[in-house]
Structure formats: C-alpha cells, structure tokens
Amino acid sequence: MIHSLFLINCSGDIFLEKHWKSVVSQSVCDYFFEAQEKAADVENVPPVISTPHHYLISIYRDKLFFVSVIQTEVPPLFVIEFLHRVADTFQDYFGECSEAAIKDNVVIVYELLEEMLDNGFPLATESNILKELIKPPTILRSVVNSITGSSNVGDTLPTGQLSNIPWRRAGVKYTNNEAYFDVVEEIDAIIDKSGSTVFAEIQGVIDACIKLSGMPDLSLSFMNPRLLDDVSFHPCIRFKRWESERVLSFIPPDGNFRLISYRVSSQNLVAIPVYVKHSISFKENSSCGRFDITIGPKQNMGKTIEGITVTVHMPKVVLNMNLTTTQGSYTFDPVTKVLTWDVGKITPQKLPSLKGLVNLQSGAPKPEENPSLNIQFKIQQLAISGLKVNRLDMYGEKYKPFKGVKYVTKAGKFQVRT
Amino acid sequence: MTDSKYFTTTKKGEIFELKAELNSDKKEKKKEAVKKVIASMTVGKDVSALFPDVVNCMQTDNLELKKLVYLYLMNYAKSQPDMAIMAVNTFVKDCEDPNPLIRALAVRTMGCIRVDKITEYLCEPLRKCLKDEDPYVRKTAAVCVAKLHDINAQLVEDQGFLDTLKDLISDSNPMVVANAVAALSEIAESHPSSNLLDLNPQSINKLLTALNECTEWGQIFILDCLANYTPKDDREAQSICERVTPRLSHANSAVVLSAVKVLMKFMEMLSKDLDYYGTLLKKLAPPLVTLLSAEPELQYVALRNINLIVQKRPEILKHEMKVFFVKYNDPIYVKLEKLDIMIRLASQANIAQVLAELKEYATEVDVDFVRKAVRAIGRCAIKVEQSAERCVSTLLDLIQTKVNYVVQEAIVVIKDIFRKYPNKYESVIATLCENLDSLDEPEARAAMIWIVGEYAERIDNADELLESFLEGFHDESTQVQLQLLTGIVKLFLKKPTETQELVQQVLSLATQDSDNPDLRDRGYIYWRLLSTDPVAAKEVVLAEKPLISEETDLIEPTLLDELICYIGTLASVYHKPPSAFVEGGRGVVHKSLPPRTASSESAESPETAPAGAPPGEQPDVIPAQGDLLGDLLNLDLGPPVSGPPLTTSSVQMGAVDLLGGGLDSLIGGTNFVAPPTAAVPASLGAPIGSGLSDLFDLTSGVGTLSGSYVAPKAVWLPAMKAKGLEISGTFTRQVGSISMDLQLTNKALQVMTDFAIQFNRNSFGLAPAAPLQVHAPLSPNQTVEISLPLSTVGSVMKMEPLNNLQVAVKNNIDVFYFSTLYPLHILFVEDGKMDRQMFLATWKDIPNENEAQFQIRDCPLNAEAVSSKLQSSNIFTVAKRNVEGQDMLYQCLKLTNGIWVLAELRIQPGNPSCTLSLKCRAPEVSQHVYQAYETILKN
C-alpha cells in the first residue's frame, strides 16, 4: 500500500512530505531525480521506478510531481488513480493545484491527506464526504474562524460515509433546483500527409452540475443510445438499467461530477471538421525553407469552427521564421522551436493561411523529418458523434427543477502529419 | 491569512518560541502553534524536540487541535517511545467516546504509533472497536489489525484478532467487508503460508455481493482477492465472471484492470465452445482500449498489461490495432510500449497500415523511438512473411537517408531477415556495404561483419572489407572481435587461397595478443579445427543455421500464465514474477492459471504438468529470446545439422585438396606451430557447444548397467516447454540403490547454470538423495548425463496414477515442471524373498477379493528363463510346480515401503501367453506390478 508521498516542483524541490506508515527519508527521491535527469523532458519521466528497497510511482500534474513510495506489491493503477484523486481534491479545495496553493494551505493539505488514506488504504476520497470532514477554506470562513475561534474541521461523522450512496450527503437544500449537463466530445485524430485519416476516435464525457434538494432519482435517456457501446460510469449509475433499457438511472452526487465517459471509435461516425493544406520544404544545401499552411472547414453541420490554434514543433535546426498570415497572429519561440498560430474563427469565404520563409542554421544538414501540426478547435452546440439527450426525468422529489443540456466539440490530440 | 505564515521564522530560535506558544493558556494560540509545528514537519524539518509540549495539547475538546496533535504523534512517536506512553490514556478514553468519529480516530491513530510498548494497551480498545455498533468504527478497526500485525504479528495472533477479522468478511456493511479483505490480504502477503483468506463458495458469494456496494477502492481489494480463488468447475467460473463484468465499465481504471485480471484468469476454465466465452472476449476489448485514453501514467501501466494480454489471447484486441498508433506528443515511455504491442498485433491483414506507420515513426526526432521503430520493421518482416519484401525495401529507403543511427539499426535487422529468409534478399548486400564506414556501434559493426563473412563468396572484396576491420582489432568490443574472428574463418573456408594471411593474422591476434578468454578459446578452437580436420571445420563453421523464430521476445508460456495472474500489479509492469523482485525473500506463492475442468475438456490437450501451459506449436525453429543479436553471434558454433551438406560433394572434394594445401603451408611454411596443448584451456570440453563435444569428447553415454531392467531414456520435458532445456531420463535400480538417470540438453541459446531438482510428494516417498550436480554451466547445445541417487524416505502422498512423480527442475532461467511415471520394479527390494511356509500362510491370509489376474501375452519364455529374468529385478521364485503340463511359478516381492506382493505365474509350454495372479494387501499396486512384470519379461 502507499507508504509515503512527496510533492516535488519543477525545479526539483521537495516541498511537502507525508508518511502513512513509518518515515521514509527524503533521499529516496534521489532515484526519482536521477530518472528525471535521464528523461530530459519532464513529461517523459517513467511513472514506475524501482529502487533497491522501494518503488516510486509518480504522476505529473499541473507542473508538480506527486511521487509515492511503495514497499510491497500493490496495483500501480490504484496508486496512480489515487494520486490523481489527490490532485483533483486540491483543485477542488483551493481552486488550483499549484505549489503556492498547497503551501498556503499546508495544514488543510495535511489534514486532507490524513483523511484520504489510512495506513495506505484509501479512507475517504469522495469530495462531498471530505468537505463535511474538512471545510474548504474561504476568505469569509477564515475571518469568521479567527473571530469566533471555531475550526474548519467537522466533528460529526459524514452522512454519506457508510450509506449505499456514499457520493451524496443527506439534507441537501437549494432554493433554485437545477440540473445541467455538458456533453463534451474531443476528437483524437492522426491525419496523414495526403489528408486521409489514419486514425480517429471521439472521447466523450457528460459532465453534470446538479443542484437539487433532497434525494432526487434521475433518469437520463438518449435519442441514439446505440452510439454508446464503450462507456465508463460514475459509481452512482445503475448498471442493470443501462444494460436492459439503455437509460442512465442514478441518484446524483451533489454538485459537479463526471457522469459518464465514452468512446466512439468506428471511423464512419467520426467526422473530421477541418482540413489543412500544407507545404513545408527545406532546400538541400541552403539555409532556408518554405512554409505554407492553409486551414479550412470540412463538414461542420452548419456550425462555426472557432478557437483554432495550430502548434508546430519545428526541427532543431530552424533558427527563425518570417511568416505572414491572413488572419490571427503567430509567434515563434526560437528556444523551444515552437510555432503557435492563433487563428480564431474560420469564415469559409476567406480561408486563413500562414506562409513565409524558414531560416535554418547554416551548414547543418537539412532536417529529415517534417514537423507534425497540432490543431486545436472548438465547435459550440454540436456533439460531433451525433449523440443527443432525449429527456431527463426526476423521481422521488416533488419540485420541478431547471434542466439544461449543452453540447460542445473540441479537438483532443488532433495531429496532421506533413 | 494563509498557512504560509507558519513557515516564517524569527531570529530568536524557532523551537524556543514554539515551545512558549504551545504552553500558552490561550486555546487559539496553542492551535496556531501546533499548526506551525505541523508546517515544519511537512517539509521534513525535525521538530521532535517539542514532543512533550505538543502531547500536552492532546486533552482537548477541539477536534481540529486533537487531529493536529495526532498527526504529530504519528510522525514522532517512534523516536520518543517513552514519551509516547503519555498519550495512551487519552487514546483509551477516546475509544469510549460517544461520537463514532472520535472513537474511529483514536483507534486509527493508535495503530499508527509504531511503538511496541503502546501495542499492549491497544489490544482492549481494538477488540471493542472491532465489535463496535457503528460500521465506520468497525471498518477503521479492521485496518488497524493490519497495522498492528505489521508491528507485532505474534500479538495479533495470540489475541485472536485474525479470527475476528475473518468474521468481518460476513459483516452486513460492504465497506467493512472491503476493509477486512484488504487487511487480510495485506497480512497474508507477509505470511503466504497462513491460510487466512480461506475462500469457499459461500464467502465468495458474500464478496460478490459486497462488490456491488462498496467504494471503488474496496472493489479493487475484493477483485484482487477474488482472483486468488479457484472455482471448482466451469459453471462457478462463469457465474463469477458474469457478476464481475459490470466492473469493466467503472470509471476507475484500477477497478477495470482488476476485473480484467479476474476474467482473464477464470476464462481459462471456460470451454472455448461456450457462447459465453465469445461474449466475454468481446466485452474485454472496449475497457482495455478505454484505458488508453486516460492520463499517460495510467496508459503506461495499461499498455504493459495489454502486452501480456495480447500474448495470452491475441484475439481480444486483434481488430484494435489503430488505437496503438503513436501520437507525436505521447511521452516516450508510452510510445515505446505502443510500438511493442503494434508488432504483436501485426498480421497479414493489417501489415500495410502498420508498415506505413512504422515508416512514419522512423523519421521522428526521438532517437530511442526511431531505433525501435526501425527494429520493429525488421520484426514485421520476420513475423509476416508476405510483408518481408516490402519491409526490406522500406529499410533500404531508410538506409538511403544516411541518418547514422537509422542506418546502423537497419543493418542489424536486415541481418535477422537474412537469417529468416536465406537466399532471398542478398541482392541488397551491395547497398549495405556502401555504408560500412559510417558504422560506429558494436552491434551494427558485428552485424555487418556477420553479413560479409556469411556471404563472402558473393562479395568480391570481402577480404578487403574484413581486413579493414582488422586494423583496429584491439580497440573493438568483444562482440565485434568474436564476430570478426568467425567471419574471417568463414571467409577462409570459402576462399582459402587468397586469405591465408588474413586468417593467420586474426588467429594470432585472438590467441596471442588478447586476454579475453572467450576470444582466445574460440581462436584456439578454430585453429585446432583447421589444423586437424579442415573438412570437419567446414562442416562445423559453415553448418546450416537453424532458422530464427518469428517472435523473438515472447514471454515463455509458464511465466506468461503466472503473470496473467498478476495483471494490474507491479509484477505485470516489470513482466517478472513477484518472487524475482519482492524484497525480503518472503516465500511468494507461485500462482498459476486454473486448468480447464474435466467437464469442459474439449479439444484441448490434457496437460500433465501442473502449470497448465497451453500446448505450443511444434517449433522447428530455435526459441530465441533475449537479445537476439547476442544469441546469433554466439551461434556460430552451431551443431552440424542433419540435412544436406552445404556444398555438393564434388566441390567438397576440391575444397579438401585446397584446404589441405592451404593448411600445410599455413602450418608448415610459416613456422606456425600448432598451439601447445597446455595452452588450450583445460575446460575445453565444457563451455563449447555439442558440435565440438562430438569432435573432442567421445566418452559421453552411459554404459548399460547390470541389475534391474532399465528402460531407454524418454523425453520428459521437451525443450519448447522449458525455454530450451530438454530433459530425458529413466530410472534404474542397482544393488539396492535407486537412481534417476537424467540427460539435460541445452537447446536454448544461452548458458544454463544453477540447476536444482525437487520432487513433489509421491506414493512411495521418492526423493532426491543428493542435490543435482551439474558441475559446469551448460552451454548451448551441450548435453550432460547425470545420475541422481534417490531415496524412499521422502514424504508420502498417494498419487493418481500410483507411480506418478511430479518433478520441478530449476535453472538460472526459470523453474519447470513435468511429471513422469516410474516403473514399479525400481522399488522391488533385494531382500524380498520369503520361505515357502511364510508364502503359503500369507497367500491364505490375504482375502480372495484382493486377488487380481492378468494375462501376459507374447512371452515365449520357459519357466527357467522367466524365473532368472525376474530374479534380476528382485522378483523371487519361492516354488515351482508342474500341474497338468503347465508350469506354475510362485513368486514374491517386497516394495520399499514394506508391502509384500505374492504372485502365481502359469506358463503353458507352446502357448506364448501366461497368466499372472497377484495377491497383495494393498490391491492398488497390483496393476503396476503387472506392468513391471510385462516390462521385465519383454525386454
């Protein structure tokens, strides 16, 4: 089970340590630093490192490393999932998961860590249970606390802790009862040089924001539930109902949570909303090259594509780029060799393009590889898979809630090879 | 108003100031002071000096303050054991508190104070809390038992906490059940022998019920525990699978993977004809693919596990190739794993896509990744024959790029392709030779030298090329030196006239100027070969090489089966069984997949080995593993394979002449003396392959022994099941001692050492009387004969069949299991003769229903011959009668465990069959005694 946790920032300082069993010396992190040095890039540090006496399992989140120390055989996924849960909790409590936020709230952090894990076993990881045990800091509360001397540690047993629905607390009350759902789909795709799709799939999630009084029992149905054949559910969803009727039936947690995540992989369902025309070439024995890309909409189902950004990791020999753009603005960082073109919206009448010269280091051999283009975009009011919510019914409570569904499609890992 | 203020220090000694504040009367000030102490603790500062002051703050109604003090206590109690006692009273009091939160907090904290003295005080409160009315307290107490066990295992056992913990598995609250399972699993891990988690259908049912209702973490513990259970038949397996499958849709990836483990394991028991089997296969793919869209760290662990799963059951993901395509912003550790799986899934159907991707990857930036991609192209060529041509042309394209590491990597894999498809792609050699100068890595240089040596007859300037390498011979790595030596000898054997000088040079470099024993030995061997028998040299050095196998890095099946049982654990990430890396040498129990049950036995072959390895395909190729190239390089001394010789006989005749002349001049003309024998390493016979053993050592083979009949050696453990170790053997009995004559053959490409043998308990208590003595390491293609003395004083367990013996053999590679049947006559003792009276009395004494009658056919021996033949195997004739022209022999024998067997053998002259009646108090041996009679009489 999880023995200890070290939080390490990007410059390699250990700024927090927590031990659930005996104390393990900080020096164990030296093995981690060694691996970090070898990996060159922070993102390439291997998540499981073995040392003579321990295993280090780490995640990299928000420019911080969460390094856990393991002494016995334990499922690494369990550890990684737990570490992400810790980071999520910090995010939830402090609005951001950063070194500053953690240092500012170090005592709460410590109390949280103690509450989340007991002897390496997870104890309470549900946000609403934790919040009953340890109240999140707010400016108002800290003022009140310092005047009245009351504390931000709850002294009663959280209600959800042992019930069959640990994710919901009892006695929730709202004056405005609302239930909102966001259907967010991200397209992961690899497009090859000629513009044909090598690989494409949709990673979808339905995030919910539920503010309903009492113990509502919700059923969410879809126009086309057949789309969803590979789904991961929040524990609140009744699996049997889904198996038999394809209806999401659940008593929701209070507040924000991810209801389901799903994957649509069959290629004909994944429409690619943009295309890129590109010509990037480097001349042999000369210190310059040409760069020319144009981006346009494909099938966008009557919706505008917006928030387009193109990021390109140029080869190491590129010194600088002299480009002109018809729309938006571009930057090139000569140190990291990253070209970023912030395009904005596409208007089909005039397609945005970016072209110009690339300056190469003189004397260096011409780059073997052409860079991949990484594209970000967003389409509002559209779930690209065609998923549509049919209706939301509520049982168990008398009032009439406000209901709403929002759709949005984004680019996930969307890359175009050139 | 943030906590960062707690980090600020004043000039006037921090500790001093904190001490004052901790002893302040004001509650608020106290709390702030404790917070400061905790803040220092979080960054690893030593604040243990404040121990008494902090503990003094413990008696408080303020829960936050209490929790903070507890946090401090847990960290420092160990360093201040005497002071920690001060806290005990408060704990005991808190365990009686009406608020369950406080009770739980107290018991939880007490368990974390790792001080021996405190544990005694902990027992009573813990006992109460384990039976607390509030499930929250019970579940906390369950974990506390595990904590206490870690500190003082004996105490936990003496106090009976383990039994209480077992009872909690039947608790009404699922969270309590989950924690009890987790605690028991943790305790069981440190005590593998203790049968703590005694799983039976009832407890399994309870676990499955709790599974649906407990938290995600609890689900992981329960699923991992379920995976250790072996259902009694396929029906039970199926019903558990049905109840576990909903977990595949859980949002927590650890739950998903643990569920996959249970399903993969229990699936083994289901018949493949079952509809449900197919359904289950289909259900497994989507969750595995979903894991790949998670965070990169999760992806990495998932990919390592998928790597195992596609080796075990490739059908699950065969249509999902595309999800393993690499994205350029994947972390490198994910990229490398994806690549590995892509090759495993490559087949004729998808090879075009895969190759296109691989070519794309080969132009990426990351050097490690590019190298692996190039290597992957080679592996595709070897795996999918239809694609070989395309792969080779892709590799040639890549060589044209002249990117140094790409070229080198390509040459290494092309060499493998040559090995797999001889005489097909040699036209590319010219292109390869162009790049000779750019090679600077030993592996690539060695590969290139191998190619030049192997195809010397097709390369006009092969001698020049090799000579160019020879200049810097001593600066090369051993790999290259060895290869160069072999390459030049090959060249010499192919083109003897022009290359004498070269071969002389390399032989002297290797034998005289080198201090590397491997190189020197190989040099001497070549030298002696060339000087004694050039024809043999040709047969040895230019022997046809066995083909290399398709999958060069498949995990060996028994290990794979074991690893499947460890899906989701660290073992699955490292692809090693836990015994290989878990610290402290705790006796880790080997897990194995359950065998298919009899009711579902379909076309599957019945397995006798306990590890239930799936039947492999008959390999006509060598099972290469590990670093393929290293293996290839060591293979040059391969055995002379049966089959057509490489050259036609007429050419050979000519060659002999040439060689003779060449050698004469080589040895005579240039004042070369054949190396003195003393210089030849004494252990010449041992470290070299059997090809050479045949040449040098003709004394192998055990002479036939007098005494009991000895069956010819049979293969007990085929090489393909044991990573290249082949074991054949037989049993002998000679003057009262039994032995097992073993013949171990190393058919793998690596040296085997550290042999050991062990028997499972068996019907007659057979056990090795001495350790397995293999004196020298067993090098590839070498065979040793060993006679292992056996005793009959081992532990006894009745086997089915009676004479079944299960054997485990270990070497440096792994542990292998096989079972064999021993002939019963090795157990017939020398003093097994009865006198007549005794015989008569015993015969009458044994009830008639114990009598068994057998026919021995085709045994045209007369009574005399039979009697003497049997006597040599310790079956004694007590009396002989002639009744109505039939010879009646009355015989007796005694087994090592003292069982007497009496026999009446009726022989009719002229009739080749005889009738055997056996009487014995243990009638189950009769059948085997009869078999022993048959074997003895017919041989």
TrEMBL record, chain A:
Signal sequence segment: none
Q: Where in the cell is it found?
A: Golgi apparatus; Cytoplasmic vesicle membrane
Q: Which GO terms describe its biological process?
A: anterograde synaptic vesicle transport; endocytosis; intracellular protein transport; postsynaptic neurotransmitter receptor internalization
Lineage of the species this protein comes from: Eukaryota, Metazoa, Chordata, Craniata, Vertebrata
Q: Which family does it belong to?
A: Belongs to the adaptor complexes medium subunit family.
Which superkingdom? Eukaryota
Q: Name one GO molecular function term.
A: small GTPase binding
Q: Please tell me whether the keyword Protein transport is annotated for this protein.
A: yes
Organism, scientific name: Macaca mulatta (Rhesus macaque)
- This protein is called AP-3 complex subunit mu-1
Automatic annotation (TrEMBL), chain B:
Q: By which gene is this protein encoded?
A: AP1B1
The entry's family comment says: Belongs to the adaptor complexes large subunit family.
Membrane topology for this entry? Peripheral membrane protein
Beta-adaptin appendage C-terminal subdomain domain residues are 828-938
Record's keyword annotation contains Calcium: no
Q: Species lineage, top-down? A: Eukaryota, Metazoa, Chordata, Craniata, Vertebrata
Cell location? Endomembrane system
Q: Which UniProt keywords apply?
A: Acetylation, Membrane, Protein transport, Transport
Q: Would the keyword Acetylation be found if you checked this record's keyword annotation?
A: yes
Species per Swiss-Prot/TrEMBL record? Macaca mulatta
Descriptive protein name = AP complex subunit beta
